[in-house]
Each structure stands twice: as structure tokens, then as C-alpha cells.
Amino acid sequence: PCMIPKDHPRYESLMMRERIVEGYKMGITVLQGLIAHGRGEMFDYVLGEKSHDFALKAEKVAVALMMLSKRPVISVNGNTAVLVPEEISELSKLLNAPLEVNVFHFSKERVDRIKKYLERFGAEVLANCDAELNGLSHGRRIVDRRGIYVADTVLVPLEDGDRCEILKKHGKKVIAIDLNPLSRTAMMADVTIVDNIVRAIPNMIKFAKKLRDASREELEEIVKNYDNRKTLRLALETIRDNLTKIAEEKLRDI
Amino acid sequence: PCMIPKDHPRYESLMMRERIVEGYKMGITVLQGLIAHGRGEMFDYVLGEKSHDFALKAEKVAVALMMLSKRPVISVNGNTAVLVPEEISELSKLLNAPLEVNVFHFSKERVDRIKKYLERFGAEVLANCDAELNGLSHGRRIVDRRGIYVADTVLVPLEDGDRCEILKKHGKKVIAIDLNPLSRTAMMADVTIVDNIVRAIPNMIKFAKKLRDASREELEEIVKNYDNRKTLRLALETIRDNLTKIAEEKLRDI
After folding, report:
1. What is the SS3 assignment for B241?
2. Torsion region of A129: left, alpha or beta (phi above 0 gives left; psi -120 to 50 gives alpha)
């Protein structure tokens, strides 16, 4: 039972933290995932905890790209599973893109727990662990033969490592959700959504509903000319400018 | 047993993470402490993971202030205990300032575990939990009658909350070690050391040795005219400029 009052100024942030901590007790998130969440919190704070225009644009392009793909897959790790189980399941259905459990700290038991947890929200969840991606040494090499292994586009929320590079080498398009625009994943992805996952997935659901009846040409028009470097540059500039603004306000007060 | 190779570019950072994770398994750190550590990692990264001049200056002033104090105390929480047990014990002896275990997530068992852990490094550790500080509702109100309760200066590493404000209300001088120059603690402390604790404490040990034979006048000269607002401003400017620099380098590469 969560005791955080709804009108607490940090309610959303504290609730997310609670869900990650609860996830650890359920055997879904891992201790390293808690530390990673802390890093993300910090970036969200300096981003002003809102979905900026560059993020909304990337979210729209990501949805269009998923809709244009033959075999889109949504990769889910422990933190994603506990933060947005319902939303990611809805997005999966709207985009006809199955979820696939893929974790850095691998055990078959953990993968099965995440699968079961997500299935409660009605999603199709791949977790057969019956194929391997060359070039990765840790648990993330283990994939599902029907999923990431044959996917042409993979949505990778909350990646912390070198998987983006390998997926690209395997010829896949990668969409990343990463609050750190400086991370290797953010830098290497085809589309980088610099936004908190708890805002990004609901935004993507809205775009998916809006674009449901769009023609192939319309979708291609959205994807065409998208410049991910520009997104990264805008995100970095926003962080820098926000930091300057927060600093000036805070220093005025003391 | 830690399997991180010593030549890994992120060795220091990964080792710290391991120690925090180990601390959890020992019942010394808590899950919230792991998330807090992640936030700190992020700030250290954008600070360039080094002790800047403004930090060295604050560390020197902090040492002089502790030496000038009648009853200086070093407050220790779970993360501090596992990150720098040996160093904080050495500093404690050099400054004649006892350690006092003081944690946000309180249980007598946890406090005793931290006390025992620190005593292995030869420190005097207060943990009687026999007094209360008015104005604080959580575990941190519980202090030792011989320590923080009667202290005139408290060194507070890795604070996460509103304790700094209360200590100030009780008329104490507060020295904070906080990688986030925007935090309430950083803003309210008399001396804010914006540096990673694993560098800050060894730096303070060096200053304590250097100032061992300094006269009261010399120490007062160091403390006099110290401007903590200037420290905060320099720290914020450094983060902003580093972020810009990192961004430009990274964006050039892709």
C-alpha cells in the first residue's frame, strides 16, 4: 500500500520509484535497474518533466515507422514492465507489434515472471528464448525466434548497454526511449525518444489511434526527412537551457 | 567477488555501484539508496567525474570549520558507510569528530549493522538513538544525545531530504556533500561540497593533515569570506558548460 499523498509535488516521480521498488520485491526489476532509474529521474528533472516538441515529433515518427514495418517488435525489460504494463500492452495491440521480454540480467525464471505479469494486461508476450543474436555476450543476446530475431523494427525502451549497436548490425531499425540523449543507445538509434516512458507510451498510443486510418503514403511522409541528430541536439540544448534557468531561479532564492 | 576488469573505462563508477548493491545484501543500504545513487552518478558524469576547484575550496573550508568547532560530528548513512568506510573513519580521527549513524529508513537493527560495519575500521561510532530532533518526522529525527543532538557543526554526506533545514533551525552549522547543486540540502548548507564522496573524503583527509598544525587565526582566515553561493554558482556553470562540451563532441561523432 502506497502512502504518498496525491497532492505531493513529487507524487508522479515518487510513485514511479515505488513501482520500481515493488518490482524488485516481485522479482521483476533488479538492483541495477533501480540505479538506472535514479539516473533517469535526474535527466527527467532537468528536462522539466514534460514531453517537449522534439519528443512528440519522435513519438509520432516512431509510431509511423512501426506501422510501416513488416515485423515490428516491442522489447520489454523489468523496469518497463512495472512502469507501464497496461500502456505497453495497449500500444502493442494498436501497432500489431508483439511484446518480447528481453533483459540484461537474464534468468529463465525472471523472464517468465515478466511474461506472466504482462499477460495480465492482455498482451501477446514472446519469451521463448530460443535464438541468439551474434555479437552480444550478456543475457540480451537470448531472443525469441518469432520476435526480435526476425524483426525489422524494434522499439527498445530503457536500454542500458550496447544492444542498439548490435540490432543495427543485424539490419534492424531501432527506436529508443531514453531520457539521456548522451547515451550510446540514444546516439545510435534511428529514432530517439528523449522522454519519460510514462509519458512516451501514452503519447504513442494517441498517435497510433490518430494514424490508424492513414495511408502508406501519409505514413511515409511522416518518416521521410526525419533527422534524429536534430532531435538529439534539441534535447541537449533543452537540458542545458533548463539547467541554466533552474540555477538562476534557485540562486535568486537563497 | 567483483568481475569488473580494472582497465574498464567505467571501473570506478561500476565498483561504486557494486558496493552499493553489496551493501543492500548486507542490510546496510536500502532500495531507495540505490535510486539516489543513480541520481548522483548522473551528476558526477556531467561534472566530468573530477574534483573541481570550487569543490577543493569547499573541502578545505569544511575541514577548517570542523577544526574550529567545539563538537563536530560526522553523520553517516548506509550509502556513505559502504562507499568510504575506511576513509570516513580516518577523517573522523583526524578531526576528532565522532561518526554518528543517522538514516532516513530507520530500524535499530539497521543502525546497529552500520555501527558494527564502521567499527571494523577503527572509528568511534555513536548510535545510541536516545534523543530526538524536533521538526523531523522520519527516522532521521532519532539521534545520539552525545552526538548530533549537541553538535555545533555536522558534516552531512549524501543527504536526501529536509534535514539540513532542521539542523540549521537547531542552530548548527551544516557541511553537505552533494553532487546535485540544485538540491534543497545543497542550497541550504553553510558549506556545500559538490563532489563525489569517494573523492571528497580523501581530499578532506589531505587538508586535515596539512592543517594539523595551523593556528586558530589561520583556520579562521580560511573560513572567513567563504561564499557558498559562489560555490553553487560555479558548480552549476560547470555542469552546464560540460554538458555543452560533451554534447558537441558526441554530436560531431554521429
Report:
1. helix
2. left
B126 three-state secondary structure: strand
> Do residues A101 and A111 lie in contact, with contact meaning Cβ atoms separated by under 8 Å?
yes
Radius of gyration of the CA atoms of chain A, in A: 18
User: Which residues from chain B sit within 8 angstroms of residue A181, using beta carbons?
Assistant: 247
Edge-to-edge order in the sheet of strand B125-126: B125-126, B99-101, B72-76, B153-157, B173-177, B191-193
Q: How high is the ipTM of this complex?
A: 0.76
Chain B residues within an 8 Å CB radius of A243: 236, 239-240, 243
Residue-wise pLDDT tens digits, B65-101: 999 999 999 999 999 999 999 999 999 999 999 999 9
Domains and CATH numbers, chain A: 53-236 (3.40.50.12640)
Dig out the grid coordinates for B108 from the structure. 535499530
C-alpha B128: how far from chain center: 21
Side-chain half-sphere of B134: how many Cα atoms within 13 Å? 3
CB environment A140-164: b (16+ within 10 A), e (fewer) = bbbbbebbbbebebbbbbbbbebbb
- Grid coordinates given for B164: 539540513
User: What is the pLDDT tens value at each position of chain A, 254 positions in all?
Assistant: 445 667 766 778 888 988 999 999 999 999 888 988 998 988 998 898 999 999 999 999 999 999 999 999 999 999 999 999 999 999 999 999 999 999 888 899 999 999 999 999 999 999 998 888 887 777 788 889 999 989 999 999 987 667 888 899 999 999 999 999 988 899 999 999 999 999 999 999 999 999 999 999 999 999 998 999 999 999 988 988 888 788 778 777 66
B→A interface, C-beta within 8 Å: 17, 20-21, 24, 31-32, 34-43, 180-182, 187-188, 229, 232-233, 236-237, 239-240, 243-244, 246-247, 250-251, 253-254
Interchain pair A246, B43: CB under 8 A: no
